[in-house]
Amino acid sequence: MTSGFQAVFLAAALIAAGLVPATAVVGPSQAQRTVAQPIPGVRDDEDPFLWLEQVTSPRALAWVHRQDERTLSMLQRDPRYPNLYREALAIEESRDRIAYPSDIGGAIYNFWQDAHHVHGIWRRTDLAAYLANQPGWTTVLDLDALAARENANWVWKGADCEPSPHRDCLLSLSNGGEDAVTVREFDVQTRRFVRNGFVLARGKQSTAWVNRNTLLVSRAWQPGEVTASGYPYDVRLLQRGRPLSSAVPVFRGSPSDVAVDPLALRDGAGHEVVLIDRGVTFFTSQYYIQTAHGWRRLDLPPKIDVGGLVDGRLILHLNQAWRTGGSSFAPDSVVAVSLKDARSTPGRLQPTLVFAPGPREAVESGGIATTAHRLILVILHNVRGRALVFTPRGADGWSRSTLPLPDNATVNVVDTNTDSDLAFLTVTGLLMPTTLYVARVDEGKTRVVRSLPPQFDASRDVVEQDWATSRDGTRVPYFMVRPKRLRAAIPQPTLLTGYGGFAVPDTPAYSPIIGKLWLERGGVYVIANIRGGGEFGPAWHEAAMTVHRQRAYDDFYAVAKDLVTRGITDPRHLGISGASNGGLLMGVEFTQHPDMYNAVDIGVPLLDMMRYEQIAAGASWVGEYGSVANPAQRAFLRSISPYQNLRSGVAYPEPFIWTTTKDDRVGPQAARKFAAKLAAMHVPYFFYEETAGGHAAGANLKESAQNIALQFTYLMRRLM
């Protein structure tokens, strides 16, 4: 599941473009579903596998152990597994990978894992050496040595360094890969943890530097004092050298919120501000600012994201239309608000327009970044990226330019900071090895820093973008990598993937794993850009929220049908794969269209939609899926929930279901119960649960390689 609070849009433009019909069919497509009888002797309102929700109970773990033994014994004995594992591990541990930069105070930092650094090292070099591709790295922290010394399975979750001089950093370390972290202050000059420095014990928590000696901290100050989603809602001011019990309350949300987090922003002109982000739901927030009269709420629409601070102006991304002060702004627009006005008159803001998307355009999720004096926006046009730079021009608004980068590709901002106008970006495509660029955004210049060497033979393949027509008439794009010469009337082994949720676009990117393990063996690879994602802005997302979610599943099925109709593949050679929300998508396709797919790869999934709100962080996603407390939404969730819709007497394909014990975001519970129910129905399946790794499924590179090899062994058994 994604983290943070997102949303998006562009309804009028999309309807005008014909991408979202004004009279779309609402609700599940009952006519397309397989109908069969319930399991004999099990009532629909009973859950005989509820005991598997006790994540670490001896009985549940014994069941997991038996399942893992069975799956490993079958898949690892497959003659294809050893080669797949070796290839996956070689890619995961390759020293040819790009060392992605994090610019902290003019020095370049990088977190790196390889065969010799299983947990990883945090290292640094200077900017000139990095740009010259002669970094001469200095290790700042050896996580393997720390893990051995402290007998912990430390997984790196990032560093947040103080404002200038950037010497002290808050390191977030997870024991086993879960979202809950321990926060410890680290001195990058002495390369040691700070004696008597800031230390926050394990928990889901967030921090913001106020100054070198002061933090704003959101955490469970008392045991169990978290929201229904499992996140903190109490923000306090903590001084260096003082115990946690001395922290001064600053802001307190409600247990019914999703989370409350502090947010510190700075720009290159010396402006600073600390905000409180009260996440009322996953997609709606209230922002508070400290004024001369205390903390006051900013008069902003609820569906909005703060994108940074430039030239004393707050950058805001609108996920809904906004009418204020005689001005009107369309969804997905980016606007600016004077920081001075926000402090003096938080209830009467006067935004100015920075950017408004055109038809078939959208602001990329996570595509807003600020430098010392500029704003960068990554824009999608027909799911292809480009990077725009906006410069404040006083009363004249903002000037706009486009960074010179390859077109028809996926563009991502890797790193920026507010000390300079440098930015690092990547450009990638399905057959285009990822290239790292450095940009002088003040000059509009870019140059290549490093390109990933080709990781597989792409000479026989071609990429194309095609469109399928969904059940309600909506045109749905998809990207396909296929051999240049397809053999007539011979169905190809095809792997179809998708996500379709949380406004996250599924953009094409270079994957050495897909290329080496699948494409080189003659497979076809397809990405479906279904509704629910952010490919075309907020309207594309909202079209498949809550009781409208069947549209996303219909879109995915439409792409599958299009591949079969075109003769690319057939149901015997068509497999599907997805994780997290994509795992839910796979579960729905498995239950609604079992005759369409011969392989279904279901990762870290939501599958029991009647109980998802009661598991891990599930309550935070009510805005996306709906709630069983709402009768109409409950009825819809019941109609699509994979766990509830398994039926005896149906010829299901043999699925591969995988999860992790340490996943404290989605949790392993639904995956376990789904497999147990299949077993009770005598339906063949594979189930594997890694004990570490969190929602990312793998605490280190060897665990990741094993998980990858298991998946592709399964896919080849079914499709090749």
Envelope shape? globular
Strand content: 25-35%
- As residue ranges, the low-confidence spans are 1-42
Structural class from helices and strands? alpha+beta
Q: How large is the count of helical segments?
A: 14
Overall number of strands: 39
Fold-level CATH name of the domain at 11-17 and 57-77 and 455-719: Rossmann fold
CATH architect. name of the domain at 11-17 and 57-77 and 455-719: 3-Layer(aba) Sandwich
- Main beta sheet, described? 8 strands, mixed
Tell me the name of the CATH class of the domain at 11-17 and 57-77 and 455-719. Answer: Alpha Beta
How confident overall, as mean pLDDT? 93
Roughly how much helix do the residues carry, as a percent range? 10-25%
Rg (C-alpha, Å): 25 Å
Span between termini? 31 Å
- Looking across the biggest beta sheet, what order are the strands in? 32-33-35-34-36-37-38-39
Keywords:
720 residues; alpha+beta; Rossmann fold; disordered N terminus
Describe this protein's structure.
- With 720 residues, this protein is of the alpha+beta class.
- Among the domains are: 11-17 and 57-77 and 455-719, Rossmann fold; 109-151, no CATH class; 152-300, Prolyl oligopeptidase, N-terminal domain (Methylamine Dehydrogenase, Chain H), CATH 2.130.10.120.
- The strands form nine sheets. Strands 32-33-35-34-36-37-38-39 form an eight-stranded mixed β-sheet, sandwiched between helices.
